[in-house]
Amino acid sequence: MVDIEHPKEALAGHIGMERKALEPCTIVIFGASGDLTARKLIPAFYHLCKDKLMPPAFRIVGFARREKTDESWRQELRAALDQFSRTKPVDENVWKGFAANLCYCRGDLADAAAYKKLEELLTSFGSGPLRENLLFYLATQPSQFGEVVGEIHRAGLLHKDGAGWQRIVVEKPFGHDLASAHALNNDLTRYAHENQVCRIDHYLGKETVQNILMFRFSNSVFERLWNRNSVDHVQITISETLGVGERGGYYEEAGALRDMAQNHMLQVLSLIAMEPPVSLEAESVRDEKVKLLKSIRPLTPDDVARQVVRGQYFAGMVNGQPRPGYRQETKVKTDSNVETYVALKLLIDNWRWSSVPFYLRTGKNLPMSASEVRIQFRPTPNVLFAAQCGNHLDANALTLRLQPNEGISLRFNGKVPGMSLGVRPVRMHFSYDAEFGAYTPEAYERLLLEAIAGDATLFIRRDEVETAWQIVDSIREGWDGKPLTNREFYAAGTWGPIAADDLLAQLGHAWHEPLVIK
Ligand code: BG6
């Protein structure tokens, strides 16, 4: 029994599942001189080391074109850690022990001789697990994945079956449509089994996103309401105050639909709506996610016109700061039709969710940075409190606050104290910080650890990626050849185009602003 008087201690003992000891391994980062290595990967490995979660022996090899020595690479990363570490100051003792495992290998991704040199370096670590257990992090352009995978295979570093284990880690974009994703997946699995490929969606590394499954399937109170009988509709919002900034070149190719909906939003949706898996094994969880994505009703071009709203920001103010319009951003075409905002109404054709609308929205330069899921329950029959509330008796809502102010809130009605029968909504809040303290590992820490451990639950399987692209492709087809209309623009600092409000108004719904917890 969990002792509710001492929840923290009790939970640590009851729920902390033992992780199998990690085997020694070498991590090779291709494209190691890029931003990702200094900002995310090295700080994450440093913290895993600090928390004593790395394998008993490991090496991290940076592979890139620039001329560097082991020492100069370490110094560069040390300086970057001062800036990007989530804990400060950097612990010198931990850093010293960690840095001794960092090596640099200069080489061009297209040069077979460079992979030979890499092979020699790995062999110099001995003939054991540091040579055989290899995690390849492809921090390169997706167009280079096929080449890198082929070269590491030819250098004798990657096998489908053989000694030790080898895994490939890649990040989005996984293609720009179904056809290109399919080709990319073929490249990745030419010399590796599907279960050797770890496709990262950093949203799955977030504690609050992982908690969706725990919350749904470890509480009898909510799960029995989690269906069309009790839920009126669901809203998933991922809003950002940032504009596209320096990423105009990338964004012109992506847009909000490819950048956020294809991956993060559909991942959150599948966790919120999937059926209970047979077990917590990776394949069981991923089977259910794919089933859910496949149950989303396909959109014809006419449906797209009715159910999908896109938008692009023009100049405005976000939190008192002036922002340029999207068409004025660096590397953006002055007549660009790329969407910086998208809102969708999706229907899930299965037994649990039939006719319950799922509204998803995401955008840049919105008034608030927040990710949350709101489960809006059906209202009660309006018979008792019509005198007090008219038609406005509030319906219950459960909000999963994914970030910031991580936590969960339940909104219900209560009597206003006093002599009258006044009723108004009140809230109950759970906050991660208050309950568990401020331990918030970066998503990358969790994901890198899972990649080393070989647990695929938090990685996206090939069929998940491809099913998500099918949905996104059908939306893009609906937009093809249709430039943005006036109704599809919004001022930076507002909640998107008016058309997004009309989308919900079709069924008498309205967007709820993300909760701010003081
Ligand atoms: C990335 C997108 O995948 O996710 C960015 O490319 C976006 O455009 C980011 O800003 C949002 O992530 P987070 O963790 O800040 O919500």
Defining traits:
single chain; 9-stranded mixed beta sheet; 6-stranded parallel beta sheet; binds 6-O-phosphono-beta-D-glucopyranose; alpha/beta
Fraction of residues in H or I helices: 25-40%
Report on the biggest sheet.
Answer: 9 strands, mixed
The average pLDDT value, as a whole number, equals 93
State the distance separating the first and last CA atoms: 33 Å
How many helices?
A: 18
Proportion of residues in β-strands? 15-25%
Query: Quick one: overall form?
Result: globular
How large is the radius of gyration? 25 Å
Low-confidence stretches at least 5 residues in length (pLDDT < 50)? 1-15
Q: Bound small molecules, which ones? A: 6-O-phosphono-beta-D-glucopyranose
By helix and strand content, what is the structural category? Answer: alpha/beta
Number of strands: 17
**Strand order of the main beta sheet, please?**
16-15-14-13-7-12-11-8-17
How would you describe what is shown here?
There is one protein chain. This protein has 518 residues and is an alpha/beta fold. Helices cover 37% and strands 20% of the residues. The protein has helices spanning 7-15, 35-50, 70-84, 92-99, 112-123, 129-132, 145-154, 178-188, 207-217, 220-223, 248-273, 282-295, 301-307, 386-389, 432-436, 443-453, 462-479, 498-505; strands at residues 25-30, 58-64, 102-106, 134-138, 166-171, 197-200, 231-239, 308-314, 316-318, 321-323, 341-347, 357-363, 370-377, 397-403, 407-415, 423-431, 489-491. A 9-stranded mixed sheet has the order 16-15-14-13-7-12-11-8-17, sandwiched between helices. Helix 2 (35-50) packs across helix 16 (443-453), helix 8 (178-188) packs antiparallel against helix 17 and helix 11 crosses helix 17. The longest helix has 26 residues, at 248-273. The chain is globular, with a radius of gyration of 25 Å. The chain starts with 6 loop residues before the first helix and ends in a 13-residue tail after the last helix. The structure holds 6-O-phosphono-beta-D-glucopyranose. 6-O-phosphono-beta-D-glucopyranose binds at residues 202, 240, 259, 371.
